Amino acid sequence: MKRAWHKSTRLNFEYRDRDIELVSWSRIKKIPPPSDAIEDYEDESGWWVILSDEQGDVVYRQIIHNPIRVDKELFSYGNEEGVRWEIPDAAEQHGDFSVLVPDIPVATHLSIYGSFEEDDVSVPSWEVLSLELGLENLELDTETMAAPRDLEEGRLIGITKLVDNGSSTEKWNIALLSEGYRDSEIPDFHGHSEGFISKLKATHPFTELWNLVNVYLVNVASIDSGIADPRNPQDNPRTYFDARFYNFASNDRLIVANQDLALLVARQNVPEYNLAMMIVNTELYGGSGGTVAVFSAHPQSAKIGIHEMGHSGFGLADEYEYAGSNGLIGKRYAGQPRSEANIATSIERARLKWGHLIVEEDEIPFFRNPNCNDFSPKPPSHLAGKVGAFEGAFHHHCGVYRPEAFCIMRSLGHNSFCKVCGNRIRKIISSNF
Ligand SMILES: [Zn+2]
């Protein structure tokens, strides 16, 4: 297949409350992610980036995960279901995110479409950022030339290419950052990374895509070992990315860290990265989602990382139900159709986005939640592994459907991505080849 584009541009944005601003950019010698459908998406709710030409025609579209962090996702130890934590002062959030788009000569304009909160879904996403490209006219990015941050809390030691399947220009690259490891503990970081990598490699569809993936370890040494823990405020380890347990409610151990610094370190050290992740040196289970997925060295935490890849690497939606404490989410979804590949609001066969994957000719495998005020019961076993329409997804009990009964985007108790998520992952990773 002939490739349309060979080079990418990485655009780095900063948001403060609801204002998004381009702060820097750089040209990357790398095959960019493929385009998503550029027709019939105007009614959708979700997040995407579009490039358009001088006539205003869309030439490229990339569905992304909501980059604005108003809450954090984590998984309780033991029950494997996702829960979400509101971040205090969500109205005044700020942070960074990056988007890798093709360097298309005819593209003169970039827009980001989004909706800021999950209860904003009753209207289609709107243009939250509009930018004349003319990149030649923009100031050159000097950030990548800046010296790596040498902090009181630690320093960058170097990069290790742990999984080497070829040139980073043509592969899908993971940058894995270390947090809370002292100089002498970097070998532990490598061991923990290998543990994560072997789990990822065993997860469908990564098993068959493995020769398209590179993994770079960004070895950052901290002065102290471990993670800050609110239960022991007296020992406050000095670590590079300032990771800390946010709370200790039952088994819901949310780990937060300086994601903006992590993105910067990833950009500076692995310019061709597709996805940045961070391993935190603690044996306790925990982690969180976000632009950079964060997970601990506990063996089960690797699955948090794999689920978060579905969001930050492939723009997939959660397929689980969640009765929000504020009552705003959960129950029935009555919003616009969604942009994500793995959830649907219409189950009409012809309009179902994964209809082509349904093998049954007469009726589609279908499972409805009989009580919208409660969680969808487990579908009968004869429906396992079948593509159809299963009610309960995207933090709602009904009104929105997932393609299969089980998927790692629904529960960490499952060991693989479903067929629809797998195809999405394959499409993006294969484009690098
Ligand atoms: Zn999730």
Task: Tell me what the structure shows.
The structure is a single chain. The chain is of the alpha+beta class. The chain folds into three domains: 8-137, Sandwich (Immunoglobulin-like), CATH 2.60.40; 155-312, Collagenase (Catalytic Domain) (3-Layer(aba) Sandwich); 320-334 and 364-406, no CATH class. It contains five helices and 20 strands. It has helices at 186-201, 206-209, 259-269, 302-312, 419-430, and strands at 8-16, 19-28, 47-52, 58-64, 71-75, 82-86, 94-102, 109-114, 126-132, 154-163, 172-179, 213-222, 244-245, 255-256, 275-280, 287-288, 293-296, 366-367, 389-393, 396-402. The protein has a six-stranded mixed beta sheet with strand order 10-12-11-15-17-16, sandwiched between helices. It has a four-stranded antiparallel beta sheet with strand order 4-3-8-9, with no helix packed on it. The protein has a three-stranded antiparallel beta sheet with strand order 2-1-7, with helices on one face. β3 (47-52) and β4 (58-64) form a beta hairpin. The mean pLDDT is 88. It binds zinc ion (ZN). Zinc ion (ZN) binds next to α4.
Fraction in helix: 10-25%
What percent strand? 25-35%
Number of domains: 3
Second rung of CATH, namely the architecture of the largest domain: 3-Layer(aba) Sandwich
Rg, please? 21 Å
Question: What's the CATH class label of the largest domain?
Answer: Alpha Beta
Structural class: alpha+beta
Task: Name the shape in a single word.
Answer: globular
CATH level 4 superfamily of the largest domain: Collagenase (Catalytic Domain)
Task: Quote the CATH topology of the largest domain.
Answer: Collagenase (Catalytic Domain)
Provide the residue-averaged pLDDT: 88
Parts with pLDDT < 50 across at least 5 consecutive residues: none
Describe the sheet with the most strands.
6 strands, mixed
* Tally of DSSP β-strands: 20
Subunit arrangement of the protein: single chain
